[in-house]
Every structure is written in structure tokens, then in C-alpha cells.
User: What shape does this take?
Amino acid sequence: MSLVVKICGLRKAEDVKAAVSAGADAVGFVFAESVRRVSPGEARKLTQYLPKRVRRVAVMRHPTQSEWQDVLDTFSPHVLQTDIDDFESLDVPDSVERWPVIREGWAGIDGGLPAIFLYEGVRSGAGQTVDWQHAAEIAKRGRMILAGGLGVDNIATAIRTVRPHGVDVSSGVESRPGRKDPGLIQLFIKAARAAEKQV
Assistant: This one.
């Protein structure tokens, strides 16, 4: 299976266009407290012309059921990405794919893992890299989407070391917090695709 590349924290139409034209498989919209936060209505508008091949990802953290329901009804995401424990209290229809977020140091890491999960540092969107050697061991146990501190300069090494199912970038393709750089998005995806061919 080919590497899944997700560009996260999109806020403007040109951000979405840059991600799609560069070959992103998924685009993420943040509904949690963040400089990248958008409303469900804004996210819906930004993705109204999205190609069918690109997945819409709702990125949340500890949402209430009503907050999630608003995102579900208004934005209609293909995927819900939120902390693994959040899924215990949320009603998520079978039509929506689940990407549980597992954070480095999570106490349950030695237990059973979901079939697919996102692995990152303690703080989302903070540019924190995880221990890639440790992540490589975890990646053998499921379809890991690696996140945290990835960028143009290190994505190739990350992919060769961890061999994840997918990669997720936000701050690593920004000129400043919350401001995406189309050139960096293109370079990131190009570097990720090149590294994918080497593993």
C-alpha cells in the first residue's frame, strides 16, 4: 500500500489547492483550540470542490458529543482524528473512519493497538518529534500515521527509519504558525514520495 500523506491545519482555499495539486491523500481541518482552528462551516466551504480521492479529516481533541455532532453534520468528514480515549464517549457512525491519536508515552502502548492510528508527541501542532527508533517498533504492530516535527529536511529520514503507513505534517510546512507555505507543501510531498520508493 502506498504511503498516505496528510497535510493538516489548513485554513485557506490556496492551502487546500496547494495540498491537492501536490498529491496529498488527506487534508486535515482543526476544530480544537489552535491558531489553525476553523469552524465546521469554513471547513465545508474549503472542501466543496475537493477531489473524491482526497480524504477530509476532522481533527479534534476531547470534543463533547455535541461538538462532534456539529462537525459531523456540517463538515461531513471522511475521518475523525482525536485522542484514542475520546472514542469511548463519542458516537461515530460506521461511515466515518477513525484515526485514534496515540501520544508518545501513552500508558497503554504495550497493549493492543488499533488497526490504524496516528502517533505523535504530547502536544499537537507543536513541532515535537517523537523517538523514531521507538516509533519504528510500534509501527510494526499496526498502520501508523507518523506525526510530530516532520518537515522537508527530515521527512525522508523519518520514513526510512520508522516505515510508517502514513505521515502527517502541519507546522513543518508553514512560514509562520498557522500560515501554510505552498512551496513547502510541494517540497514535503515530493520528498515523502521519493523516500517511499526507497523503503
Observations:
- The longest strand covers residues 97-103.
- The radius of gyration is 15 Å.
